[in-house]
Amino acid sequence: MKKTIILLLAVCFSVVSFAQTQLDSIQYLDVIELSDIKLKAFTNTQTVLKLSDSIIKKGNPLLTHLLNNNSTIYFKENGFGMVSSPSFRGTTAQQTAVIWNGININSQLNGQTDFSTVNTKLFDNIDVRSGGGSVLYGSGAIGGSIHLNNKIAYNNTDSHYVGVNYGSFNTINSTYKGHFSTDKLSINANVSYLKSDNDYDYVDSNKSNLNGEFYSNTIGLNLGYKFNDNNIIKAYSNFYDGQRHFSLQLPTETPSKYKNRDSRNLLEYVGLFGGFTSKLKVAYLTESYKYFSNIERDVYTDGGVNTLILKYDLSYKLGDNITINPVLDYTQNTGEGSSISKVKRNVTGFNLLFKQEVTSNFLYEITTRQEITDNYKSPFLYSLGLKYDISDAYTVTLNGSKNYRVPTFNDLYWQSGGNLDLKPETSYQLELGNTFTFKTVDFSVTGFYNDITDMIRWLPTTTVWRPINTDHVKTYGVEAQLNATHYFGKNQLTLTSNYAYTISEDQQRNAQLIYVPYHKATATLGYNYKRLSAYYQYVFVGEVFTQSDNNPKYNIDAYYLSNLGIDYTLGKKKNITVGAQLNNIFNHNYQSVLGRFMPGTHFNTYLNFNF
Amino acid sequence: MKQFKKILFLAVASAFLLTSCSNDDDMIPFDSEPLGAYEDGYFVLNEGGGNSVTNSIIFIGEDGTRTDDVFRIENPDAEEMGIYIQNIFFDDTRAFIVAGSGSVTVVNRYTFEYITTISTDLESPRYGVVVDGKAYVTNNASFASVTDDFLTVIDLTNYSTSQVLIGNYLDRIAAVGDKVITTNNQYGSEHSVSVVDTNTLTVTDIDLGAGNTSNSIAVSDDVVYVLTGSGKFMEIDLDSNTVASTVDIPATISGTKNLNIDDDAVYFTSEASVYSFNLGDTTVSETPILTYNSTSAYGVMYGFAVNDDVIYIGDAADFASNGSFYEYSTSGALLSSNIAGSAPNGFYFN
User: Which first-to-last residue range defines the signal peptide (chain A) (predicted)?
Assistant: First the structure.
């Protein structure tokens, strides 16, 4: 159906060159199907790693595990399923932005996303965009951004998907995805439930993971209605409710638990008139948590922020080659908690985005943003990117940008200690990408440099801990991707692999940042034969420092993980898939946070049913 | 030449004889065995980061010899001490190591040999003290509540535990006779000390006056004194449960903390400086007896003690790497400068 639309559109626009037409039509389709269109329209000069739903449907639903196995992002995970924070290109946890259908959903309270609280099964694809993107994606898009996307398709079908997973430590995950659509209306309803006893035995020890159980429920509803080809209304919503007991490092610790609830709602109107694409978006996000420092007591600390976003986005195509796109947005956050008295923050922002395809093989894009707020001194943000196709096989990209991470509600308003004089963390960065595309092999190498100043750190003063703009960090390194496909007979072999070498140097101490490995690599070798598919996955995470003076006494050793998976599709209509995975097959004993041991060999089985 | 050799032999022989004689002489008056490798010297307690791995206890012997990580050297197979090691307190033979994660590890005071771990009736424990065969440990309990703070009572014959509910964000603790006294709410608005009669377990709060939050406590000649962050040095009368007298520290010295009393001299700190006055003085000099250089803007004076005319200072650097500790004379002369473990927060003397 999708192909038909592209073909039809190609015919319609047959006056322009074929390649150009295809690009435009894909973008036209994206406008209809996706909310995060900027990921296509203004991300031509940076690397985007795409994780399709076939990868998402295998394995456990935690975003942290999906990305740890398939990208060069490093994760600091407080034990399996526990709080997990990323380091992308050597940056801190607040310097990776998580984007849900185009909207930044990092916590307003602590500035980061806990990657163990995102259930990936509800999304149709997940993209990993490397490098700065604060103009488009706001605070925290410094190391890069993670994009959780839902598609709204109008293809006259009813389909249902049920996925049931059962694995070690009594881990259960059930997911339902329903799709109903005509050529005007699209309804997509998703539900996923996850629970685990998470009581694994430590490798080479008689101890086990205590107080680690967790569960979560996620619901998604995504609707679209086309009044006609030029007027479309879309609604996206996502609701997460979860409880985790925080696993203990020592049996003598007081067991604690954490409940959090997030809701995200987005209403979007798209109008297409001549060269104009007009979008009006209203988003309402809520986040809240309750932390029980002792599970025996009914006493907790809590906090929450509600966020309202209004956005008007007007994209104009000037001729065939120039896109001008001003965006006006207004954000209001209202926060409150045990340590934050009710406070409101208003930010108004204006973006101007510009793209020109100068020739068929050369384009450049410029993005700028200025905010007005009295909560922090907001810098002027910008990016400039160039893309040049030197030949069919070789493309060079260059991108430079200024990005920020704004002080969080906790940083500004925590009682006592919140510091109203904080400046945003700012980053200047530059990257040079080389992409080589051959018939069945593509390869890319990107060098990056990132200079981050005014980094915020909480430090104890004479009476209380306070956040201070103190650190200056330079991160630089090289990322490489290699993907290859090989067919022999009805057999298909695929290789997807990533490697990153990252220096992240604190300029005062002349030392590598803690919890940033120099090396990380992932590789997946997949095999397909008719209804059978299998893979072998290898993840290598280099040694990390845990002490700011790089004292090697407390380093965490490098670790590697090897995972195996196999599945088989049954049924006349190929609508049932049965699969099994064996993770950490060599029963390697590893930690990702000092003192917190991860599981040894463990399994997962799944049954995916389409009807 | 022969003569010379003979003299040399005699000299060497007599040297041996004399040495062994003097050794024998040394041994004879002591009829008791040495108590252990850590009998004479002091411990530096390094709090560690948010894990059970980076904490450590350093021992410095009387002769200056240093032993790192005493607990793990002596007890390689014992349970870890916990997370955020807060305090060590002693009875005659045992040392009790308090971990903020909710345990008290008991070891032999002189050999550091592991005895047991207590983990019942403890929730965010802070400091402890021993009175008459029982240990009393302050607990913050849940940080979300000001009413759940309690005292753990540990029977040191069988390590059984019980609780005395007090509230008030209990922090430091000291003992006089059969009473224990706690400072309350080091960082906040509470302005009292609590007195617990260990015989009846009755609790009496003594108000120090608005704005006077006590943050440290010392006992000298059975009299208890507290210091507030607002610059008040107060003597507490435990018979009438009132403030017996107050010395006002000049307002130019801000953020006063770390009260210690050694040999009738009172010591306290403000930022990177140590100040002193004598018990009985009614005024305090604005001139510090020493100011040390800290590379850490915020981990200054993280640990502090004065013992037998030596001032001990712990500097926590950035809390994510090794700190430092220093010995100074009471006249302000630097005696030694040393690398500590992660966040040195206290000095304890054998």
Answer: 1-19
Task: Count the helix, strand and coil residues of chain B and give each as a percent rounded to the nearest 5.
Answer: 10, 45, 45
Could you tell me if A202 lies within 8 Å of chain B, comparing CB atoms?
no
More confident residue, B307 or B299: B307
Interval A61-92: pLDDT, tens = 999 999 999 999 999 999 889 999 999 999 99
Q: Which two tokens stand for residue A372?
A: 């007005």
Domain residues for the domain of A230 are 34-610
Nearest residue in chain B measured CA to CA from A338:
B144
Q: Which two tokens stand for residue B35?
A: 């108590």
Instruction: Count how many domains chain B has.
Output: 1
B118 Cα to chain A: minimum distance (Å): 8
pLDDT over 70, % of chain B: 90
A458 band by pLDDT with thresholds 50, 70 and 90: confident
Please state the three-class secondary structure of A123-173 as a single string: CCEEEEEECCCHHHHCCCCCCEEEEEECCCCCCCCEEEEEEEEEECCCEEE
Is position B301 within any domain? yes
Would you give the DSSP letter of residue B28? Answer: T
Q: Is residue B160 part of a domain?
A: no
pLDDT score at A275 = 86
Tell me the helices (H) and strands (E) count for chain A, helix number first: 7, 32
Instruction: Indicate whether A246 and A273 sit together in one domain.
Output: yes
How many residues belong to chain A? 611
In sequence order, what are the residues at sequence separation of 6 or more whose Cβ sits closer than 8 angstroms to the Cβ of residue A180? A157, A158, A186, A187, A188
Query: Could you give the CA distance from residue A516 to residue A493 in angstroms, rounded to a whole number?
Result: 33
Contact across the interface for B187 and A464, Cβ inside 8 Å = yes
What's the rounded Cα separation, in Å, for the pair A91 and A94?
8
Q: Spell out which residues of chain B touch residue A459, defining contact as CB-CB under 8 Å.
A: 297-298, 318-319
Q: How far is A340 from chain B (nearest CA, A)?
A: 13
Cα torsion angle, B176, B178, B184, B186, sign: positive
Q: Tell me A603's DSSP state.
A: E
Q: Collapsing DSSP states into helix, strand and coil, what is residue A228?
A: strand
Structural domain for B321, as ranges: 249-350
- Residues A146-158, buried b or exposed e (16+ Cβ, 10 A)? bbbbbbbbbeeee
Give the side-chain half-sphere CA count within 13 A for B336: 13
DSSP assignment letter at A264: E
Which chain A residue lies closest to B119 (C-alpha atoms)? A252
> CATH number of the domain that A550 lies in?
2.40.170.20
Structural domain count of chain A: 2
Report yes or no on B306 lying in a domain: yes
- What are A230's two structure tokens? 């030029």
B144–A301 CB contact, under 8 Å: yes
Same-domain pairing of A17 and A121: no
Kindly give the interhelix angle for A2-12 and A18-33, rounded to the nearest 10 degrees.
Answer: 130
Token duo for residue B128? 């402890």
ipTM for the whole complex: 0.84
